[in-house]
Amino acid sequence: MTAPADIEGWLTDAQAERLRRAARRVRAGGRIVEIGSFRGRSAVVLARAAAPGVEVVCIDPHLGSDRGPQEIEADHERGEADYEAFHANLRRYGVDDRVRHVRAFSQEALDAVDGPVDLLYVDGAHRYRPASEDLVRWGARVPDEGTMLVHDAFSSIGVTLALLRHVAFGRWRYVGRTGSLAEYRRGPGGAASVLRQLAQLPWFLRNLVIKILILARLRRGPWPY
């Protein structure tokens, strides 16, 4: 499955295929939760792949904040434009009836979702604290052998530090990554899982150098995802 090319976003085609495969594994009666939807690029992939009877919940406050590396602060007009585009894109791809949108910060939305989360896709704010809260609090909702996918893993400083602190040495097994989209399975990881994640650090350092060069205008994109 390719990522919808006409929807703005950072999900690559190869990452969309990993998302699709994970969504297809969720059985009827299960639940998929996405944290950070922007304009619906990944939401469309998840909703189209989910089997009938699987609930798809997309959480995003659409405040115009945390949209990218240079757009951290909230902006009302920008947020409303993203909100309208998100729902328009869901309708255009025929999945608006498959998605329940919770317009709230992820930590405020914990009570809006009851029960376990079979597939958790984390692509919210990339700073260390909010990333940590998503991985810890929402990650706790994933049952044994459930799946967590994390975008900007080993690419964003905040997300990578949060993964190393809260996931790498915890009850998560590292499955692999497609670019910066890392996949984990809930359950004991052991030393092999830890070593496989630490082996991604040279790639992480490469991404940091690329970002520094882009911000210093010494290199043109693309931003490493």
The radius of gyration over CA amounts to 17 Å
Shape: globular
What name goes with the CATH superfamily?
A: Vaccinia Virus protein VP39
Strand segment tally: 7
How would you classify the helix and strand content by structural class? alpha/beta
Overall number of structural domains: 1
| CATH hierarchy class name | Alpha Beta
CATH topology: Rossmann fold
Poorly predicted segments: none
**Which strand order do you get reading across the main beta sheet?**
3-2-1-4-5-7-6
Q: What is the averaged pLDDT score?
A: 93
Distance between the termini: 18 Å
Notes on the structure:
37% of the residues lie in helices and 16% in strands. The chain has 225 residues and is of the alpha/beta class. The chain has a single domain (13-215), classed as 3-Layer(aba) Sandwich (Rossmann fold). Helix 1 runs parallel beside helix 2 and helix 4 (128-138) packs across helix 5. The chain is globular, with a radius of gyration of 17 Å. The two termini are 18 Å apart.
Descriptive terms for the model:
alpha/beta; globular; about 220 residues; seven-stranded mixed β-sheet; single chain; 7 helices; about 15% strand
Give the topology, please.
Layout: H1 13-24, E1 31-35, H2 41-49, E2 55-59, H3 76-92, E3 99-102, E4 119-122, H4 128-138, E5 147-150, H5 157-166, E6 172-178, E7 181-186, H6 190-198, H7 201-215
Parallel strand pairs: 1-2, 1-4, 2-3, 4-5
Antiparallel strand pairs: 5-7, 6-7
Helix pairs in contact: 1-2, 4-5
In short:
The protein has a single domain (13-215), classed as 3-Layer(aba) Sandwich (Rossmann fold). Helices cover 37% and strands 16% of the residues.
